[in-house]
Each structure stands twice: as C-alpha cells, then as structure tokens.
Amino acid sequence: MTLDTHCHLTHHRFADDADDAVTRARDAGLSGCISIGTGVEDAKRCLELSRRNPGFIHCTAGLDPFTANDAGPRFADELAALRDCLAGGGFCAVGEVGLDYHYDLQPRRVQAEQLELQLELAADLDLPVVIHVREAHEDMATLLGQHPRNRGVIHSFTAGPAEAERYLELGWHLAFNGVLTFKNADEVREAAGRVPKDRLLVETDSPYLAPTPHRGKRCEPALVLHTLERLASLHGLPVEQLGAITAENARRLFDLR
Question: What is the overall mean pLDDT for the chain?
Fold first, then answer.
C-alpha cells in the first residue's frame, strides 16, 4: 500500500524491537519506510538498518535544528562529515533539516544559515530535502523561495490552508501524520483536503504522534494506515487508491525505483 515517509526507527524507543516494527510494517501492507537520520552517527545507523532490509527501508541524513544546536561551534565539522556521509551513497534525501522556533535553540539567523548550507548541499547532490518547521512557517517559506533548485517535503505538516498553499506554490510536497486524526486538528484537515493528490505524502514520525485510537502510545510505521484512512476520507477516495497514490508520490520524489 503506502510508504511511511518519515520515521525514526533508530530512536532509543526502538532499541529492543526495531526489526519487529519493520516486520509489523510489512504485515500491515506497507511498501516501505524512510528512516530519518538526525545527525551523522544516527544516519549511519539508519543506513545499516536499510541494508538489512533492502528495498523496504530507505534512509536520509541531515543536521536537524537540535543536532545543529548541540554541535555549536563544531557545526562546520559536522557539515563536512555529513557531506562525506552522503557522498558515500545509500541515502534518498537530505534531512531532516529546518527551523524550530518553539525551543530555545540557536538564534534564528544562525538556524537559517545552517539550513541554507544544507539546502545547497542537497542541490549539489541532486537530492530532495526533508524539512522540519515548527512555529517558523513565514520564514521557512521565504527561505525556500530563495532556493528554487531544491525540492522535497514539508514533513509533519500541522499548519493551515494558507501555509499549505504557499509551500505548494513553491513546488513542495506536504506530509501528514497522526495529528491529522486528532480531535482539535480541524485546520490541518482543511489544509490536507486541499492538497493536490500528486503532492500528498503520509508519515508517522515514529515514535512520536501516534494517531487516534493509539494516541499517547509509542507510534510505529504500521500505524500510518490510520492517518491514510483519514486522509482518504478527506479526498473522497478508497483507502487503497490513496495508498497507491501516496506510495507513487514517495517513489517519485525520493527516487525509490
């Protein structure tokens, strides 16, 4: 059926059963998962997982806002290590990378500079980008508009129709996760219902944001089907049909053929 385009199977909450979670994803009918590398060492673990599950687990590598913040003055060294890691092959995207204004991280100017360096790296390598954005949509859309060579996905989209429209105008995909099923997410559902079908992706962001009826529990890729069901209802399509559409969108964007 569909692909979970954003999960963290190397997270410590999967330390004891990552392989079992992959098996459950296969049994649920998923056609693949993209495990997101947050930092170079985590990306290497994702690559190992993908090699154990060829054709089913894909992986990315990037310096997300939290990893970049932790690097501090060593960011340039981490960026060089990221470049070397990506150059070795096996990764389908750069990410997640982005802006996060919710937490007390690097100053906004520094976050933007670090993101732009990774956008340029992705463009040089001709790789799509997985974008993390929290409470920074205006700045993110402006910045992405200044980097037309890039393509990719706004992951965990939880804003409204206006923000969605701006990203769509810039050519980006939008990925929806369990938040789409939450009771208080009417604005997110309104946005999701307006996204053209060829720009839709689904994800879990496992182990976070488990969809209803599993909210509050650890999330895992198999649960993406709950989000897919809600998204299909918003577009008036059978689940199987939208599953095939989102899977094809993911294969095309991330070159998973």
Answer: 97
- pLDDT reported for residue 23: 97
Q: CB 253: neighbour CB atoms within 10 A?
A: 22
User: What is the separation, in whole angstroms, between the first and last Cα of the chain?
Assistant: 15
* Helix H or strand E encompassing 176: strand 173-176
Alpha-carbon span 232 to 216, nearest angstrom:
23
Whose CA is closest to 83, among 123, 46, 141?
A: 123
CA 228 to chain centre: 15
pLDDT score of 257: 75
Q: How far is CA 244 from CA 6, 24, 29, 35, 228, in A?
A: 17, 19, 11, 20, 11
CA 164 to chain centre: 16
Tell me the C-alpha to C-alpha distance, in Å, between residue 159 and each of 83, 91, 166, 235: 31, 28, 11, 18
Residue 102: strand, helix, or coil = coil
pTM: predicted TM-score of the whole model, two decimal places: 0.97
Quote the DSSP letter at residue 155.
-
- Which string of b and e fits 197-225 if b means at least 16 CB within 10 Å? eebbbbbbbbbbbbbbeeeeeebbbbbbb
Spell out the domains of the chain, with CATH numbers in brackets. Answer: 3-254 (3.20.20.140)
